[in-house]
Specification:
This protein is of the alpha/beta class. The chain has helices at 11-14, 110-113, 120-127, 140-152, 161-171, 175-187, 191-204, 211-221, 273-279, and strands at 17-19, 22-23, 32-33, 49-56, 66-72, 75-80, 228-232, 237-240. The protein starts with 10 loop residues before the first helix and ends in a 12-residue tail after the last helix.
């Protein structure tokens, strides 16, 4: 049977989160966030005073404490490493702490290309052997990761067609092949066949330096997490993930909550001023350093 994947609904769940590189500190110390974060993603032109302010201990991934930043006047926010989203135990993209794609020959089997990410689950489920527990049943976590992967790729039948088009554009997927995969996924008899429908789509995803940003953008459009904002350590700039800028046309009053684009309490600083001004949403930032 299929496992329901949670689609975010509350304003707090849908708020933005910041993704930035982490660096290995050496001597067995926990990784540290990249230097240069000087502006809060809630800023709309005003000056931010950003400083480090302790750590958030992790009960989920990536397995080490995360940096908490304090912003005057916007409050606290947590910095997540590339590939990780709030509350996730497993990375959503096969990248390292600094954002680089895990090494390996991209011509190898999908299980190698997508290792150490949730996409490894549907690849294994389709090819076998499945992850198993007592009585030989397919592991619920494997099925849940597979359903989440299908939603990121725009294959889930309950995703509105306009959102599917946006996900397809963000991931740069071929339209005809993607539509066939959607039909195969919808008509699949069981979780193994649904996982098999993902394989041609995964094969079309380009594993380059931008794959993490594209997957984060697709997951946001699918309603799986809040608006991802990325920090580029080379240029010390903050910018939105692909496909995540507000699109007023998708915010019809009749749209269901999971069909509209989630609105965080503040836009990234380099979004079009007209878009931010039109919304005029107050920018509270209340991500206190506690789990």
């Amino acid at each position: 049977c299929s496992i329901s994947v949670k689609v975010l609904s509350s304003a707090r769940e849908r708020r933005w989160f910041l993704s930035a590189p982490y660096m290995l500190a050496g001597n067995g110390a926990a990784p540290v966030v990249a230097q240069g974060i000087e502006r809060c993603p809630s800023a709309r032109g005003e000056i931010c005073a950003v400083s480090k302010d302790g750590f958030r201990e992790r009960v989920t991934g990536p397995g080490f404490r995360l940096q908490v930043m304090s912003c005057d006047p916007h409050g606290h926010f947590t910095v997540y490493p590339p590939g990780f989203v709030p509350f996730a135990r497993t990375a959503v993209a096969p990248v390292g702490l600094s954002g680089e794609v895990h090494p390996g020959d991209l011509r190898t089997a999908p299980a190698i290309k997508w290792r150490r990410s949730l996409f490894e689950a549907p690849v294994a489920l389709a090819a076998g052997p499945a992850w198993q527990r007592d009585l030989g049943r397919i592991d619920r976590l494997q099925r849940r990761h597979s359903e989440t992967a299908a939603r990121i790729l725009g294959l889930s039948p309950d995703i509105e067609s306009m959102t599917v088009e946006r996900i397809r554009g963000v991931l740069d997927l071929p339209g005809i092949a993607h539509e066939k995969a959607r039909r195969d996924f919808a008509s699949a008899a069981d979780s193994v066949h649904r996982a098999s429908a993902l394989l041609p789509v995964l094969a079309a995803v380009v594993l380059d330096g931008g794959v993490c940003a594209r997957i984060l953008g697709a997951g946001f459009l699918a309603g799986l997490w809040g608006r991802p904002v990325l920090f580029d350590a080379r240029t010390a700039t903050v910018f939105p993930a692909p496909g995540t800028a507000p699109v007023p046309a998708l915010r019809a009053a009749s749209a269901k909550p999971h069909e509209s684009v989630p609105e965080p309490p503040g836009d990234p600083p380099n979004l079009a001023p007209s878009a931010s001004a039109a919304r005029q949403v107050p920018p509270p930032c209340t991500d206190a350093p506690s789990d």
